[in-house]
Amino acid sequence: MIAAGLGDGLPFALTNNKKRAGGAALVQGRRCPFVGLIAMDYAALDVTDAAYLERGETVELIGKTITIDDFAGQAGLRGAEVLAHLGQRCHRRYRKL
After folding, report:
1. One digit per residue, pLDDT tens: the chain, 97 residues?
2. Taking a C-beta distance cutoff of 8 angstroms, is the pair 6, 38 a contact?
3. CATH architecture for residues 6-48+59-85
4. Which string of DSSP letters, residue by residue, matches 16-73?
């Protein structure tokens, strides 16, 4: 489980259901799909393919490997829409281009 959900700006469309595959996040360099419904404060990932995990493991939702456009595309949105809805609890790191 990750401590981020709808209240943090995760799109509900990342939910894995019968109509679409849903989204994925990066854990230890491996893509792990979301499973079940995304709740207000948490989401669950299938980490079967990841190595042994410790509590507090870092999960990449948007970053070097999963770009904002990749992340948004998983939910059928545009990158600007996702950025506009990110909550204040999301860790941000800004860098100069």
Report:
1. 778 888 888 888 888 766 666 789 999 999 999 988 888 999 999 999 888 888 888 888 888 899 999 999 988 899 999 988 888 877 777 778 7
2. yes
3. Beta Barrel (2.40)
4. --SS----EEEETTEEEEEES---SS-BEE--TTS----TT--EESSSSSS-HHHHHH
Token pair, residue 23, equals 């989204």
- pTM as predicted: 0.80
How many residues can be counted in the chain? Answer: 97
Please identify which residue in the block is written with the tokens 């393919």: 49
Strands 44-45 and 30-35, by their bridges, are antiparallel
